[in-house]
Amino acid sequence: MAFRAPHRFLSIRHLGAASAMALALSFAGQAHAEAPADDSAADAESGGSDVILVTAQKRTQSVQDVPASVVALGGDNLRDRLVTRASDISRFVPNFSADTSVGNLTPRWYLRGIGNSVPGNGQTSPVGVYQDEVYVGIPVAQAFPIFDLERVEVLSGPQGTLWGKNTTAGAVNFISRKPAFDASGYARAEYGSYGTALLEGAWGGPISDKVAVRFAGHFRDDDGFATNQHDGTAMGKNREAAARFSVLAKPTDTFEALLRVQYRDYKNTGDIIYQGLGTKDPAGFPIPTSYKDNYSFGNSGQDLRQRGVQLNLDWDVGDLHLTSITAYNEFKHRSELGTQVNHEGTHTYSSLDAKAFNQELRLASPDEGRLKWILGAHYYYEKLDSEAVTALLPNTVGLRPSWTNTQFVQTNNSYGLFANVTYEPIDNLEIILGGRYTWEDKAIDLNTIGTATGGTGTLTYLDTVSFWSRNSVTGTGIATRAAQDEKRNWRAFTYDATAKYNITPDLNVYARYAKGFRSGGFNTGATLQTQVATVNPEYVRSYEVGVKSEWFDGRLTANLAAFYNDYDNIQVTVIQLPLSQLSNAGKGWSKGVEAVVTARPVDALRLWGTLGLLDTKYTEFPNCKAGVDCSGNQFVRAPHVTASASGEYTFALGNGSEIVAETNWSYRSHLYFNAGTQAAPLEQDPKWLGNASLSYKLPNDIKFSVFARNVTNSHAASTIIPSANFGFIKYIIEPRVWGGAVSVSF
Description:
Blueprint: H1 8-26, E1 53-54, E2 61-62, E3 70-74, H2 75-80, E4 96-99, E5 108-111, E6 114-115, E7 127-131, E8 134-135, E9 149-156, E10 170-176, E11 184-192, E12 197-206, E13 211-221, E14 226-227, E15 234-235, E16 238-252, E17 255-268, E18 273-274, E19 301-317, E20 320-338, E21 346-364, E22 371-392, E23 402-426, E24 429-451, E25 460-461, E26 473-474, E27 478-504, E28 507-518, E29 521-522, E30 534-535, E31 538-551, E32 556-568, E33 571-576, E34 579-584, E35 587-599, E36 605-620, E37 641-652, E38 658-668, E39 671-672, E40 683-684, E41 687-697, E42 702-709, E43 717-723, E44 727-732, E45 737-745
Parallel strand pairs: 7-10
Antiparallel strand pairs: 1-2, 3-9, 4-5, 5-6, 7-8, 9-10, 11-12, 11-45, 12-13, 13-16, 14-15, 16-17, 17-19, 18-44, 19-20, 20-21, 21-22, 22-23, 23-24, 24-27, 25-26, 27-28, 28-31, 29-30, 31-32, 32-35, 33-34, 35-36, 36-37, 37-38, 38-41, 39-40, 41-42, 42-45, 43-44
C-alpha cells in the first residue's frame, strides 16, 4: 500500500498555510474577543476564578460541585498548550496515559492502572471515550483531532450508572462548541520543522432568529520524521483532514434540535520504530539510535476514513426535561507494516469496516429542590468486519515463507436502563444513588487459514504485492487453523452510592462507592484453534474519598482524592508469540492519591498542577503465559508517579497589546509494557515531556506565536512489543518540533 501524497500536494499545503495567515490578518479591522459558544465553557469571572461548568452528571454544574474525581480542560486552554489530538490530554490528568503507536490512531487509554495494552479490532477499552456524549467504541477512531472544542471532561473511576458499560477505569467526554446566536469563530495557521503544517478554524452565527450554524475544520500535514533507508521515502508522515458542520434550531422556547455532521480522513506512512531492539535485523542493517538514523522498512502505512451524523433533541415538558441523542458512524481502516523491503521480513496487513449506532433517551427532573432524579435508556449496536494477515514472503536470508489470514465478523447489541437520584435530607448534605442494568449480546464468526502447524506442506505465493488476499497463495501447506461461530450474552447490574457534605460554600467533602462492568468478548486474534477463547466480563468495586476547595475568592482551587479499586476477571492482553491474546487475569487491585491545583496569584499569571500516586498488583494471575505465574506483578502501563505543571504569564504593553509566555510539562515514572515479562527491554524509564510558546497579541486579538513541542527532544517509547522474528520492536514518540503560528479570534 502506498499512502504518500503526490509531491504537488506539498505546494498546495504551503499555499494553504500562506492563505490562512492572510485570512487571519484580514480580520484585523473587525476582530474582537471570541464569545464562548456555551456558558459552560466560560470562566467564572468573579474573583478571578477559572472554574469550568461541566455536565459529568448529565446536569450543568461547577466542576467543584461534582462529588467525584473530574478534571475539566477548556478547549481554548488546550489550544494554547499546543494540544491537537485526543490522546494528548492525558498529560494533564493524574494517573492517566494514552500513548499511540500507529500514528494518530489507536491510543492505549490507561486510567488508574487499567486499560488495553494491545487495542485490536473487536476489543473494548475500560476507559469509555465519548464525543458529545456519543460512545466511540472502535479503538482506531479514538485518537481523533480536537478542534473547535468547548471542553474535555475526564471522569476517573467506574462510571457505570450515567455513562454505561466499559467504564471500569473511567470516561472521557469531548464536547464540541455549539452554534450560537452571536457570531464568533477563530482561525489558526502554523508551520514548523519536519514540514509540519496545521490549518484550523471555525465560524458560527445565526442565519435567522431561530436557526444558527457553525462550521469547523482541521488540516494537518508533515514531511515525516525519519527516512526509509531502502527507498528514501518518508516515515512517520501524517496527513489528516477533518470537518464538522452543526445546525442548531430553536423553533420554540421549550424545544431545540442540534444536528452535527462530521468526517475525518487520515493517512500515515508508517511509524517511527527502533526495529530489532537488541539485535540486528535479518538483512544485517544496524540498529537505529536516533531520529537522524535511517530506518529499515518495507511498504507501511495507515488509512482511516470516518463519517458520522448526530441529532440531539431537547424538550422542556412541563417541569421535566427530555433529551434524545441519536448517532450513526461508519469507519474504514487499512493498515500495512513491512518490517523489511524486498520481502526480506514479516509483513502484516489489516482491514476493518465498522459501523456503530447509538440511541439514548433521558428524562430529568428540575435542577432545583431537595430531590432530583434522572431516568434513562440506552441502546448501542456495532458491527465489525475485519481481516488480518501476517506473511513472511519469499526471501534471500533463509527464512521459511509462511502466511496466516484471519477474518471475522462480530456484532454487538447492548441495552441499558438507568436511574440516578440525588436527595438533600438536610441543608448541605447530599445523598446520591444510581443504578444501571445492562444486557449485552455479542456474536462472532471467525475463520483462520494459513500455513499448517509445524510448517509442513508446500506454500507458493501467486502475488507478493497483494499478499493479504486469500487468492495470493496456494499449496498443500495451507489449512484451516481456527474457526469460531459463537453467540454469548452477559447481564450486569452496576451502581454507585455517594455522600457529599458542604462544609462551607467553598469547601466540600465526599465519599463514593461504585461497581463497574466491562463487557466480555472474544479473542479475535486467534490463529490456532487452541487460541479460540471467550473472555469473561471484568468487574470492579471502587472506594473513593475526596475534598474540593476554593480559596482566596476563587484564585486558588485544590482538589484531592484517594481511591482503592478491587478487580475481578481483569481483562489483560498477554503477548504469547507469535500473537497477542486477550485473557482474564483473575484478581488485582489499584490504589492511589490524586491532586489537581489551579492558581491565579495575580491577574497576569495562571498556574496549573497535577499529581498522581499509584500502586497496583495482580493478586491472582496464574499461567498468564506458558509456565509463567504473573501473580504479584504490577499492572501494565501503571507508573507509580504522574505529574504535570503548566504556567502562563501575560505581559501587558502600553498600547493594549500583550506578550504571553506559556509552558507545560508532564512527568511519568518507570513503567512496564508487558504483564508477563517485567524486565528490560519491555519497560520505559522515567520521562519528561514539555511544550512552550511565546506569543505577541494585538488589541484586535490577532496573535503571532513561536512554539516548540517536545522541547527536550525526548526519544521515549510509546510502546515496546516482542517480535517473533526480530526480538523486540520499539515505537518512539515524535521528535521535537518548533515553528511559528498566527491566529485570530473574532
